[in-house]
Amino acid sequence: MLKTNLGKLINGDALTFIKSLENDSVDLILTDPPYLYNLPKRKNEQINKNNISKSINKYINAIYDNNLHNSFDINNYLDDFYRISKTKFMLIWMNRWQIKDYLDWVYKNNMNFDFYFWEKTNPMPTNNFILQDKEYCMIIYSKKHQIPNYQNNYENKKTIFKNPIGSAYKITEHPTEKPQNIFYDLIQKYNSKENDLILDCFMGSGTTAYACEQLKRKWLGCEINNEYYKIIKKRLKDIQFKFEFLREGKEKMNIASILAKLEKIELEQQKQKLYLIALSNCGLSDLQKTELLNNINLIDEEYKQKQKDKQQAKKLGLSYAKYKKMKKQ
């Protein structure tokens, strides 16, 4: 388990976790369940032969490893989402093949629904008749309840969010990571109060938790995959250092203290963001800024080499410490 001042992350089964939560205990549910939960094994093997990216294949294999391909019943989750939600309001990402499953539950339970779309401004080329240029977030809400903290203005009524795919926004190696700014928009649009509690029981790369930390929302998260759980822990650890930068102020900031913190941060993009914060926060001279950037680049190279060494050690069946010792000999 990982805890921050605002949230808690569990490494375990999502359904078991949400069944442990009390009735009417969550202000907003914002989650991104597996898209491939009803994918038969035959299609999985076919996908592996069709040269789709290694990360997607890895994601599919993780679904099978965690038995989500045949044990995942969305109705079980939706029933519990309704039970634990104070406002009976949910934001759930899905692909177009899953829409019917969700709508069956919506109609059965006499709920309202709408869609929020992520329009991909640079969609991947395909051989399909229709370009896959959007993803769907279904807005499910009770006819008896108002949308929580909804600001009734023109901008909030927009349901199409334009954003590119790919390295322009990706922070982690998770194959289905969503852009951070989309989650900022969703949380602020439909849940504008600080300290409200937001649940994401399929954390993936930790985008919901990261957005909550930035926007001062309390959060609960769950991720069953050990590798993705570790990614989230790193990501949340890095954001804590970012907050320290902002809290310390100009008087206490200097190159030594900045570098001491950056050495502990493992995500390269976060280093660059903190470098920009340091430039605006520390009153450094041009020479000091150049020195700082050179040191950051050096730290990045050392980190990349460390990651390569860890991978090589794993291939050889050695611990990282033993591999380092062997390299020195």
Looking at this protein, list some descriptive labels.
2 domains; 329 residues; nine-stranded mixed beta sheet
Average pLDDT level: 76
List the domain count as a whole number: 2
Sketch the major β-sheet.
Answer: 9 strands, mixed
Helix content: 40-55%
Number of DSSP-assigned strands: 9
Order of helices and strands: EEHEHHHHEHEEEHEHEHHHHH
CATH level-3 fold name of the largest domain: Rossmann fold
Q: Could you give the order of strands across the largest sheet?
A: 1-2-9-8-3-4-6-5-7
CATH homologous superfamily heading of the largest domain: Vaccinia Virus protein VP39
CATH class (first level) name of the largest domain: Alpha Beta
Please identify the structural class as seen in this structure.
Answer: alpha/beta
| Strand portion | 5-15%
Distance between the termini: 39 Å
**Which assembly state applies to the chains in this document?**
single chain
CATH architecture classification name of the largest domain: 3-Layer(aba) Sandwich
Q: What is the overall number of helices?
A: 13
Q: C-alpha Rg, in Å?
A: 22 Å
Can you walk me through this structure?
- This protein is an alpha/beta fold and 329 residues long.
- It folds into 2 domains: 192 residues, Vaccinia Virus protein VP39 (Rossmann fold, 3-Layer(aba) Sandwich); 66 residues, no CATH class.
- It is 49% helix and 15% strand.
- The protein has a 9-stranded mixed β-sheet.
- The chain is globular and about 70 Å long.
